[in-house]
Amino acid sequence: MSLDSVRSFFAAIGVVVPIIELETTTETVALAAQAHGVEPGRIAKTLAFRLGDGRVVLLVARGDARIHNQKFKAALGKGKMLPAHEVEVLTGHPVGGVCPFGLANALPIYLDHSLRDFDEVLPAAGAVHSALRISPQLLAEVTQGEWVDVCQVDNPQAQ
After folding, report:
1. Average pLDDT, rounded, for the chain
2. Can you give the pLDDT at residue 158?
3. pLDDT band, very low/low/confident/very high, at 1 (cuts 50, 70, 90)
């Protein structure tokens, strides 16, 4: 179902982005990078947070980035990652397939600047065995995401 919501999302906005479905799971950054033959940084992970004001937001960042607490707090305020069961209910996607497309509920989407290190990134596509290839610019356009600087990359492997 979740994979179908991603397909419907792109069809509704008239953007053709092929969805890659694999036989193997890609539910972690390491597994996704190995399955797609790319460095972990190119995997665009989507994380869900509940902010201090109660809002739930999604953050998309490169796979090898870590949340920098001070930057996060400066940009978005206090936040806490949501537990897996809440993430699936709010997004409609299983953990490991969470992406900013075809969401069950409209949520604000933030994109970490770290994604701009690449010309193409691979976010999940609503299932633990799916992904798509997309430029960070198109990702921002289709999600209406807002760019923020909330992560740090210890060993960037940018192109």
Report:
1. 94
2. 46
3. low
Residues making up the chain, counted from first to last: 159
- In a domain, residue 159? The reply is no
Which residue has 């960037």 as its token pair?
156
pLDDT at 157 over 70: no
- Residue 84 domain-assigned (yes or no): yes
CATH number of the domain that residue 6 is part of:
3.90.960.10
The domain of 124 spans 2-152
Question: For residue 67, is it within any domain?
Answer: yes
Q: The whole model's pTM is what? A: 0.94
Tell me, what amino acid is at 84? A
Q: Which residues pair with 153 in a beta bridge?
A: none
What total of structural domains would you count in the chain?
1
Residue 68: how many CB atoms within 10 A of its CB?
16
DSSP 8-state symbol, 41: G
Q: Residue 154: its pLDDT value, please?
A: 80
Structural tokens at position 43: 């995997």
Segment 49-64 mean pLDDT: 97
Residue 157 within any structural domain of the chain: no
